[in-house]
Amino acid sequence: MDTTHPGGPRVYSVTSSASGPAQLGIRNATDGGLIAERPLPLALGSWAVAVAPDRSVYVGSYNATPGAMGRLFRYTPADDTVTELGIPVSTETFVWTVAVSPDGSAVYGGTSPNGRLFRHDTATGVTTDLGSPVPGEQFVRDLAIGPDGTVYAGVGAQSMKIAVLDPDGRVKRVIDPPVQGSGYAYDLDITGHHLLTRFVPSDGTTLMGVYDLRTGRWRTVVDGVGSLTVGGGVRGHLVHVFQHGELVAYDLKTGKITRLGFGDYGGGAARTLGWVGSTLVGTGSTGRIWHYDRKSGQGRLLDGTLTGQPVSIRSMGLGPDGRVYAGGFFTGGLAAYDPASGESEFWPNVGQSEGIVTHKGKLYLGVYPGARIYAFEAGVPRLLLDLSDQEQDRPFAMVSAGDWLAFGTVPKSGTVGGALGLLNPATGEKIVKRNLIPGQSIIGLEYREGILYGTTSAFGGISTPQGDAAHVFAYDLATHRLLWQTAPVEGDLALGSIIFDDAGRLWGLSPDALFEMDPATGRSLRTVKHQTYPWSTVTQVWLDTHIELGGDGMLYGKVQGKTYRIDRATMAFTLIARPISILLKGADGHMYLSRMENFSTYRLC
């Protein structure tokens, strides 16, 4: 936020777009009115926006398109132009954070997947890769710059350490976190002689550490701080943050917390931006601006004025009503498409659904983060289970298995060891078996006659695979034990979607192979390589395939962005369409495909 702009205080934010470009929104901080929206070429979205002393606005972006990198942009209010400043680090796909030095001479940024720090010289336009401040970490998640130009870089997803660097990028020391475990040093701010840091350990808790820069020690840790900034709401010695969803004032001198009774910030996560007079201004994940007046003690949520953008489809599933349901990526949301009428319905206040399935006549969602399982009834998600405390995050695999709703998960960043989860919604009984296949994530599930069949990925929340191949397994729901496990494709570090055909054979589709198995023994019957895959260089592969059995007896598969018809007899692939992200067989027997934000229908003739 720029509180001193001659045209009035301004809020700068980025609206993500499924197929791009993302839009930089410029709004009046006082009334929320939209001043302008400017495209950010080749960017799909951003978590990183900072205002420089000269009022230039710097934006770090991400781009989910394969081979595309994170970029740096500058918006100049004086001439209302956006300039792309290039790819700061050639290996990095995501710029998570940007921060400007107090004199405006440099812009620093933090990236993933290799945890790099960069410095952009605003006078010369030269960008320098400063390397990894904590070698081996995947993320530089947030930055803070001290009054003397000292750079503080919070990293993850394993150590949660904070690197302290000279302005030229030389690491002076590394601050260990005040909490144990893996996770992120997520948000940093300098307030006087205090370094404030929000930590997000892999157990799902959220904490704010208060570090005294004069003594070099952590003073205290405040539980439940969930806002996206920890210093934007500073006034004097009071820091305004959200604790357990409510705005509170934390006194840096006394440690006292005063609850302020305001929590209507628009949903998602709250971000405090700064003060305009006696009014604290902030936003929520939906982009709407909120105000809290410290004099009246009242808060209000302003109307949304940003232009809505299409959301990428993250998941698809068949509903009990015959509709095709789709979950949105990043911003979440849930949509349903009725093949009979052609009409659609949308529910915005649903998290990012990684899995969607119908079980005993009801729709269930597996939502990120925390591997949360919801029942979705009458347009309302109802939480049934949360696996944050077991370090789980992404329930990609979901299947109806008799009385059980079964799901498989990928663990949180910085951890390994996914889980097989079983939930009986009728009784509330639940069984969670972590590390069923040691170190590996469970990404595909199928059910037949009391047996649950699953596939794994050797990748969890770190870039190092656990083992030299992914597995298929069979799990007996009566005895709750593994019947067999095998690695059907040598060297494949992730398998994917599996399905039974009408002859009772189990078929699986990995990023580079199609395989047929005997479900009684786990013995591989046939395997064919359909294309190549760079297993020796990949750092993370979860679910990348979808396979269905068509009414014509053919298999239909999506893999590496392409959809194929597959002849079971010859195992030959015939290309249907590209690029495609998800494939689903509808209740009417037609195949439904997603391409970024779009549905397509493939009718079997």
From TrEMBL:
The record ties this protein, via InterPro entries, to:
WD40/YVTN_repeat-like_dom_sf
The cross-references to Gene3D superfamilies, in alphabetical order and at most eight, read: YVTN repeat-like/Quinoprotein amine dehydrogenase
Q: What is this protein called?
A: WD40 repeat domain-containing protein
What organism does this protein naturally occur in? Nonomuraea diastatica
